[in-house]
Write a structure and sequence with these properties.
8 helices, 5% strand
């Protein structure tokens, strides 16, 4: 529900802006004109190179060194698990684990395949892939840092007496879900790129919501993550997948702005601008 609401709110903002432009409310703003065969992202080689290099290196270091930082601290009492997350303690489906792995790979390939069909090989494709790589490297680094910083036992660890399970570093990396982060991040980037290039469309946001939620549910059914793990992973993936493309968006109109607005019922936040 959280993810569907995020996608819906993003779509509503974009659709509202499109409606204003069609009604003539923004007639003084130049119409978007994309150069370089559909280019929608501006890339700074030095800046983006440093960001990619730093985040990918951090991601790799955390992935390799992280397991050595794990201190096994179970057997663990299932009663310690918050009631909201206890549903995961009753599942350990290998079929769901395999399905989540396959779906994650397909989600990773989707932005590349759609982009190749959309713009072909060229500058626009390379720009899109730089943005996509940054989404994955930034969210991946945050995910690895959280896993080895929190050291939350996975659901299948609770109640286990197997020495192999209790002593494995991988048993303590439940928070938060990397599968959910990657899937939502990849498909949100695809949805943002399609929106910036062709205007608001329902299918990419629907794809992100349905496929991402499917992977999140599969990780819980597999006994690999708690519901809170996949919810946080989804939020990180969607957030990174929206913000990174927006920060690279070509300047064809006024930038989106975050305004504080006051109503009779109190203060609130409003995201406004031309998209």
């Amino acid at each position: 529900m959280l993810v569907l609401a995020s996608a819906a709110s993003t779509a509503v903002v974009l659709q509202a802006a499109d409606a204003r432009e069609l009604s003539g409310a923004s007639s003084d703003v130049p119409a978007p004109s994309f150069s370089n065969n559909g280019s929608v992202y501006g890339i700074e080689p030095w800046t983006d190179g440093i960001i990619l290099g730093a985040t990918m290196t951090s991601w790799l270091v955390l992935s390799v060194a992280g397991p050595s930082w794990v201190t096994p601290h179970c057997p663990c009492d299932p009663a310690q698990v918050p009631s909201f997350d206890r549903v995961a303690l009753h599942w350990n489906s290998q079929a769901a684990a395999v399905a989540s792995n396959v779906t994650e790979v397909l989600a990773l390939l989707a932005p590349v395949g759609v982009d190749l069909v959309d713009v072909g090989l060229g500058q626009a494709f390379l720009e899109d892939m730089v943005v996509y790589a940054e989404v994955l490297s930034i969210s991946g680094t945050v995910n690895e840092a959280a896993k080895y910083g929190v050291l939350r036992p996975r659901p299948f660890v609770y109640g286990s007496t197997s020495p192999a399970v209790l002593q494995s570093p991988a048993s303590y990396t439940s928070f938060f879900s990397g599968h959910a982060t990657v899937t939502f991040g990849a498909l949100t980037t695809l949805a943002m790129t399609e929106t910036l290039r062709h205007g608001l469309q329902v299918w990419p946001w629907l794809l992100m919501s349905l496929v991402g939620t499917s992977v999140a549910v599969e990780r819980v059914l597999a006994g690999q993550h708690f519901p809170s793990d996949v919810i946080v992973g989804a939020a990180v993936g969607v957030g990174t997948g929206v913000l990174v493309p927006l920060l690279h968006r070509r300047e064809t109109a006024a930038e989106p702005r975050l305004n504080v607005v006051f109503h009779s019922g109190g203060a609130g936040l409003e995201l406004s601008g031309d998209w």
